[in-house]
Amino acid sequence: MAGHGDGLASYKAAATDISVALCTFNGALYLQEQLDSLLRQTSRPTELVLSDDGSSDASVSIVTEFARAVGMRLVVAPTHARLGVGQNFNLALLLCSRQYVALSDQDDVWLPDKLATALAAMHEGEARYGTSCPLLVYTDLTVVAADLRPISSSFMRSKGLCNPSPHDALTILLTQNFATGCTMLVNRQLLERALPIPKEAVFHDWWLALVAASCGHVLYVDQPTIMYRQHDSNVIGIDTMALSLKRIIAHPASHLEHGIAMCTSCARQLDVLESRLTECHAATAAIEHVHRVKEAIACGGVRSVGRLLSQHVRRLGRFRTATLYLLCMLKGADPRP
C-alpha cells in the first residue's frame, strides 16, 4: 500500500493501551485519509476494531489492507444486517479489548496529537478522581469542507456550545448532548457501565456522555483534535444557530413535529438510563434526578414545565432552553409502557 513506509516507523514509536472503534458504511471515498491519520498519531493505538454496517463498496477491504500493511492488530465484527450508526458503534465497542477506547468515524482526519491530547486529559482525570472512576474525554473540532478547506476553527463555538461545569453536566445532558462522539476517548470503567448501548438511546455518543456524567465525569479539552469533514453524506453535520432558526421559520410545522418526537425519544432514553444506573448501583441522587426529569418530560402540558423548572433543567443557551420548555408544554402525555 503506497505511502505507508514513512508512517510505519512512527507507528511503531509510541504504543498506548488504546483501541480505536471504527464504524463504516460505504465510506470508501474518504476512509483512507482517516486511516492514514492514525499512522501520524504521536501516541499510536494498539488495536483497531472495525464494524461495517453492510457496505457495498470497498470499505472493509481498505481497512483490512491498511492493517495488514502497517502491522496493526485488527478485529473485524462478524457480518451483520444493517444496524444503524448507534448499534454499529455498540458492536464495535463491545469488541474492543484495551483499557481506553477512541471512537472513530470513517470520513474525518485526526490531527497528529489527537490521541496524546485525549490520553493526557484522561490521566489527569484518573489522578483526580481515581482509576476506578468512569471517565469520558472529548474535545473541540475544526470544521472543514470535503476537500479539507477550513470552514470554522471551532465546532463548539460555531454551534453555540460550551463545556458546562461538572455540577451542571448531567442536568444539561438529560435533554441535550454537547459531546461529539468522534472526539471521544473513554475508559474501560465507563464501558462496563454503558455497554450494551440500548436501542432506545437517541445517539451513541449522547448515551456514553449520559452514563459518564451519571456515574463518573465528563472531561473537556478546549482545543480541536480532529478535522471534521462536511459533505453530502454526513449522518450529522454542522448547523449554525442562525441557519437552524431560518429552517424553523421556513418549515415551522415539520420542525415542531420533529421537536416533539425528540422529546418523547429523550424521555424513553432517560427511562432506560434510570434502569441502567440502578443496575450498576449509581448514586441515588443521580438516579432520582434522572427519574424526575424523565417524568417531567413524559407528562406533557403545563405540568411538564413546572416539573422541569423544579429540577433546574436547561439546555446550553436561552433559545434552546425556551424551545425545550415550549415543546414539552405542547406535547401530550407519553403513553405508559
How does this structure look, described?
Keywords: Transferase. It holds the Pfam family Glycos_transf_2. With about 325 residues, the chain is an alpha/beta fold. Helices cover about 50% and strands about 15% of the residues. The chain has two domains: about 5-230, Spore Coat Polysaccharide Biosynthesis Protein SpsA, Chain A (Alpha-Beta Complex); about 240-330. It contains 14 helices and nine strands. Strands 1, 2, 3, 4, 5, 6, 7, 8 and 9 form a nine-stranded mixed sheet that branches. Strand 1, helix 2 and strand 2 (about 45-50) form a beta-alpha-beta unit. Helix 11 (about 250-280) runs antiparallel to helix 12, helix 12 (about 285-300) packs antiparallel against helix 13 (about 300-310) and helix 13 packs across helix 14 (about 320-330). Residues about 5-10 have low confidence and may be disordered.
